[in-house]
Amino acid sequence: MNLNISNVQVSYGGKEVLRRCSYAFEAEGIYMLTGENGSGKSTLLRICSLLEKPDSGIVEFYEGKKPLQQNIHLRRKITLVLPGVGLFNASVYDNVNYGLKLRNVPGRVVRKKSEEALDFVRLSHKKNQNALTLSSGESKRLGIARALILEPEILFLDEPTASVDKNNVAIIEDIILHLKNNRRMIIMTTHNELQARRLGDKVLHIDEGVLQERNSILNY
Amino acid sequence: MKRVMLVLATFMLLAIPAFAERIICASTTSTQNSGLFDFILPIFKKTTGIDVHVIAVGTGAALEMAKRGDADVVFVHAKDLELQGIKEGHFINRHDVMYNDFVIVGPRSSGSGFQGLGKASNVFVKIADKKYPFVSRGDNSGTHRKELSLWGKAGISPKGNDWYMEVGQGMSKSLRIASEKHAYSITDRGTWLSIKDSGLLDMKIVFEGDPLLFNQYGVMAVNPDKHSHVKIREAMAFIEWLISEEGQAAIGSFKDGKGNQLFTPNAN
Amino acid sequence: MDFILESTKQAFLLITSFDNELVSIIVLSLKVSGLALFLATIIGLPIGTAIGLYRIKGHSFIITVLHTMMGLPPVTVGLFVYLFLSRSGPLGFLGFLYTPAAMVIAQMILAAPIVASLVHSAIINVDPVIKQASITLGATPIQASMAVIREARYGIISSLLAGFGRLMAEVGAVIIVGGNIAGYTRVMTTTIALETDKGNFELAVALGIVLLLVSFMVNAATHYAQRTSLIPLT
Predict the structure, then answer these.
(1) Which one of A94, B221, C23, C135 has the largest count of C-beta atoms within 10 Å of its C-beta?
(2) What mean pLDDT is predicted for residues B115-142?
(3) How high is the pLDDT of residue B19?
(4) H or E segment at B96?
């Protein structure tokens, strides 16, 4: 599945946040979206993941050459992990399988996938704990597990290592690198240029709402 | 969890009876509080199988309620208003049922001079003259209307005076207020008998016996021509029973907790 | 003081003997208020949730109206329901006046705004990220709303308990539309009013004690619901 955005424009309260952003996300791999705080990268991510609509411009998903209708079926093929994550006041286990339950997945499958997902983010030992008691790093990991369990074709991550302690940053970056090996498309934001270089296959940069691709390392 | 809620909800819906095979009798609080209905209605039910639900309010409210069609029969003690209602076509088939009388009561410490005044209206003249505190029901009930007719006969307009208190309460409550305020009042003998030894009142009867204090109870049905939903067959059955030998005997045999007969049947 | 002690003593004897009349009055109170709350929830829960979750046009006006209705004096509600259900009124043909059904209707009208308002408060106290997270995980609009409601569940339960407590305690509405008929439309509060008026303090005090007990249990349940919603510290 590919994503194409064209002339996406957004204004908040009279101020232009995104100015005519265009890009074609075509290959698998990790796309890093960098920029200062407030540069508009979160907004762009939310628009790409269909959580919000732009004021003008086009956001289109394709299977091969065919554009996909933007209904619940498409939405269920992409997932976004928000910076605040949004964990439910329930157990870690119930949080991770939420998306599966929405899709009426049978119980046996839910159990198996939940265990695998929690294993992958190294949270199995906290399965029955209330999710709101987790540290910020653990919360992000659970958020990622909650998204991954759905095997989305495109995974959006908004600042997955922001406000997270060093240990967890390492764990989360490790998880993201593992995902790259599974041949899927990941689009994530970060304000950490070093992290972008470490993890990203392609790096895009937003400055005052203008989107540009940064290809060669020599540009830095 | 969801299943529990569903079962509970169904149970509750079925548990509330919305309709009832019954007739509604609009009556007064003093009649209800005397306990008469608790005694005679089970007897009526046993004989006829009919449930009578009594709504006890003030006389004025009872008549209004019935005129609106919210009752099937009316059982009050305001003969002049009842007959007027018959004349206006609201009610039909009125009969005298029973009587008791009113007594004028006052502080236990008051003198015995009132009885000698002969007429009830004279007692009121004296009370107004001496500005003795007086508690009135003030609620358009049968008792209140009797009281007002006596003020009328005495040629006095008590409203607006400091010593005259209109409390807008039932009979028991009004007497307790009168007792607290060392005031005079007028009450039906039934309520007086039921409450006088309870230790709640510091009062006594200061005047009784004048035919003017006679309290006639009557029953009548709401005119089905005005309100077609009235259960006229059952309403008539109730009226017929009240004035029958069995009904009259039941009324006469009703006694309060101290063995006093409160009402004298007089349906002839 | 003797008088109070004596009445209280008689009241306890009445309670512990499970006197028939006493029990049937208590059961009717629970049925009427319980059913009224259930119906009020069916009306108030969706309204409170809808206003909390969606930016409906004029929603602040609706909230103001709800808050005003929360403070409606029960006697006023009773009066209006009476006028509607009276044979001379528009809904007189139903024949509901002076039946438990009328009492349920009046109490439902009293409780619905309370439920709606308090549910609304509970919902808006849920972090907006919850709704967004649900959508990103593939929730339909209804499923996303359900997730928010689930997060607000303890606040919602507290609202329902508050509504129930208010209904059990009111007398103005049920006495006007119910008529306080012996063995048929007499509930705890209306019986207390009647028996106090008659000077029969034993039954009145007995019911007063039961009413306090019910109120205490409702409050304890609310407290428990709040406490279990708190995250354990370790």
Answers:
(1) B221
(2) 90
(3) 56
(4) strand B91-107
For A32, the enclosing helix (H) or strand (E) is strand A29-34
Indicate yes or no: CB of B17 within 8 angstroms of CB of C31: no
Q: How many CB contacts within 8 angstroms connect chain B with chain C?
A: 72
Per-residue model confidence as pLDDT tens digits over A47-58: 999 999 999 999
Closest CB from B18, B38, B68 relative to C87: B68
pLDDT of residue C114: 94
Spatial contact of B137 and B171, defined as CB atoms under 8 Å apart: yes
Asked if B70 and C101 come within 8 Å (Cβ–Cβ), the reply is no
- 3-state SS assignment for residue C29: helix
Confirm if A204 and A212 have CB atoms less than 8 A apart: yes
Report the residue of chain B nearest C29, measured CA to CA.
B16
Interface pTM, i.e. ipTM: 0.91
In a domain, C126, yes or no: yes
Tell me whether C100 touches chain B (CB under 8 Å).
yes
Q: How many residues does this entry show for chain C? A: 234
Question: What is the number of domains present in chain B?
Answer: 2
Residue contact C87–B227, C-beta within 8 A: yes
Residue C34 within a domain: yes
The fraction of chain B above a pLDDT of 70, given in percent, is 93
For residue C117, which of C170, C174, C71, C171 has the smallest C-alpha distance?
A: C71
Tell me what the pLDDT averaged over chain C comes to.
Answer: 89
For chain C, how many structural domains are there in total?
A: 1
Distance from CA of C99 to the nearest CA of B (A): 6
Domain with B189, as residue range(s), is 101-213
- Is C13 a member of any domain? no
